[in-house]
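Example pasted here:
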Amino acid sequence: MTVQIAFFLCLLPILLAKYAIAVDPHTLISQYGHTAWRIEDGAFSSQPAGITQTTDGYIWIATFSGLVRFDGVRFVAWTPIRGEHLPSFKITTVLGARDDSLWIGTGSGLARLKNGHVTTYPDINGYINGVVEDRTGTIWVARSRGTGPVCKVTEFETRCYGQADGFPFQHSNAIVEGASRDIWIGSYVSLARWNQGSLSIRAVPALNGSEGTNGINSLAAAEDGTLWVGTARPGPGGGLQRIGENKWKPLITNELDSSTLAVNALLLDREGMLWVGTNQGVYRIYNNAFDRFGSADGLSGNFVNGFFQDREGNVWISTTKGIDRFRDLRVVNFSQHEGLSADAVDSVLAARDGTVWIGNLGALDSLRHGKVTAFVANHGLPGVQVTSLFEDHASQIWVGVDNSLFVYKGGRFNRINKPGRGPFGVVVSITEDTDDNLWAKTVVPGELVRIRDGKVREEVPWSQMPKTLTLAADPKDGVWFGILGGFGRLQNGHLDIFPFKSTDRMEVYNIIVNTDGSVLGGTSLGLLGWRGGRFQLLDSRNGLPCNNVYTPILDNHGSLWLSSQCGLIVIAREELQRWWENSTATVKHELLDILDGAQPSSPPFRPNASRSPDGRLWFANESVLQMVDPNHQPRYAIPPPVHIEELIADQTRYSPRTGLRIPPRLRNLEIDYTALSFAIPQRVRFRCKLEGHDTAWHDIGTRRQVFYSDLRPGRYRFRVVACSGDGVWNEVGATLEFEIMPTWYQTNWFRLLGLVSGGLAIWAIYGFRVRQIARAMSARFDERLAERTRIARDLHDTFVQTIQGSKLVADDALDPDADPAGMPRAMEQLSAWLGRATQESRAVLNSLRGSTEQRNDLGEALQHAIEECRLHSPIEASFSVVGKAEEMHPIARDEIYRIAHEAINNACTHSNGTRLEVDLNYSQDLTVSVADNGMGIDPALVEKGKQGHFGLQGMRERAARIGSKLTVVSSPNSGTEVTLVVPGRIVFRNASQRPIEKIKNTFRRSSPTSHPN
């Protein structure tokens, strides 16, 4: 509420501006902008009864089937919220009060609508005929069919007045507040005046004190104390009467006697014009002059129910068949309706005496002091078709009519004859130079004629002239021509041609020559300018709304007006000067189009534009005469109130309210809004922004809906601002905050849960990967440690022991007490043992390299091991391979080879046997068997191994590492058999589909966690 009050306080100076709050009283009703909405057009479903406007800017229409709200574009039937109702849906009258409320009079009582809620007044029943608000905010009600004709509603009480209070009548039809703060009440039989509890009654002469249907229907009070009374019964004392100085007087003029009118409604507008609604249309009275407008002129219906004037000054009329709106137009039209002889105006001349001469079809019309006089053939006009008009320095009017030229002076037309009485031709343009020579451009025959002192002095044939379309005098000397493709100038008998270089054909329609010597011409390509020997073209590239310019004319303020294809274009003097200085500059302009009353057209004759001494501009457009008064341009300077009317989310409608929440999973959102400017609602423009979605304002033109798709959950703030047709912006606009609710998976707690779960998942993966890398590194370290342990065992069991024995032999030989003869034997033994050490070290190296040198053939590697063994032992050996060799994992193959190599080496070195059998079996599993017929191994040694030796222990550790089974069977004097069984799923690549890394992991899991030293 505070914002609204501040807003309207800001508007108060504007509301007080005279030009913005009333229609022009000097304009006829037919010259206003008129729009009608009829019942048959579907705007509303029944007869309108009254019209009002609330402080929020909406227009409300009372109809006999309900209440209708109007925003200038859309009619919306109003319905009360659930649980509330009106006394009746037959609405008889409405009033917009100053406290933002709407008072609703019905056929069964009174109601009040405020903030969307309805309040009814049971004490004020009956048929409500009128509701007014006085200066103190008190509501006064006129009613019939109730107890007491008048009721009063204040903040503190509701009271009705009747016979006990001195009222001699039971029913009242009309009520109004007078200039002295008194309340006037009209009934069927009399007129009552209520002033601070004092009641006075006046009889109405025409009613004769009888109850009936023809009582006082309407009242209007003027600021000077005059009271207008309208009765439905015409005749003496009836009709329209004016009460002043305690007298009843009708208004009588030459046109009409107001007592003859059957009056239904009255309105005194802000300009003091009295609008009278009758059953024969609308009458308007101003300065004792009548003007009428009825259904034949376009009114929705002849029976008028009521009037209303909105805050922009528009006048609204309700009839039995619809509603009408009248507004000021910036361009005023004159047609047959206003008295012209025809609607075919081809030329116009505003003379210095204030008379406007109008070249029409079949007549020469003159408009003076609002009166039209027609000169027709056989009634003073010597012809039919007026083709040109001009006023010379002596205020003589020159008229081209048919194929002749006349001069009008003293109420007579005098023909101008050519030497030899030849045909003069059709005169299409006339001008006068500084030497008082009159120049006339004719066609058929085409020539340029010079006239002086009423006689033709010179004739220049067309063949000697460029194709001339129009003439204009130079303020200093000579005459300018508008020619095809440029300008021409005739000065001191010398003709100069100034062609404009253009690839397009250019027709110069009309030209003006300014006091500074510059020339402006309306052309088919834009406004052509010539100054200082240089051409300039003002067209759409400079911002003009269209290029086809017919006529340029300057007003008294130096602003340039262009009659063009799209309307009247106005360019301020400063903008025109800026264009002269920079031909590429964008020129600010104003366009008056059809909504302003302009009717663009190109008349065939000249002049088609003229300026009268009072500054008004007149334009002929081949049909009507148009007038623009630059000094009086109606402006609607009130910023339009902006309202958000509805929000539609996935076809569900929501009224704008605080804390609006939209259900989840929203797909489509529509927001409807409006701006309440009723003068020219078609020009209201909008900008909007959805905070939380848009980063900038969007200019959406005249559209009154905006759409969004797939908005994310969250809080939003929609803002919309608007400007009136005159470009006045309401920057405050309207705002709607709403929230789109999230689904369960769009909530913050779900996002937090997902974030935490994701973090835990990443942490788990990271931990798993760290453990995986640690296991891999541990496995590599285990493999290295195992290999070092094996090498240590091999070196300890063979090479180190041999070196130790060699050291003992060397120590014995170096003993001084030793037998010198035994020295050679010791050296021989030392040499043999060193050779053995060499063989043993080579064997260790071969055990490291042997299997890796064989890419896949384990049998070949074992064959080499057997052959190497036989080099140092007389044992007989046999080797057999069963099955087809298969590709094996290299790690497993190395371990198998080293186990088998150890078993073969032990058989050759320690068994003392004579036969060695080695079997390699490729089947579902891999089996390697090494058997000898030697002395066998002690069972205790088989179980625990020999102290200080690591052969059997190393074989078992290798077997465990690759997940295989190692069996050693030995008995004294029967030899030893070592069997290794390796599962095929581990060793054979084609038998296991698991990746190599999984096989490695299997090896690593099978590796021992500790090794003997």
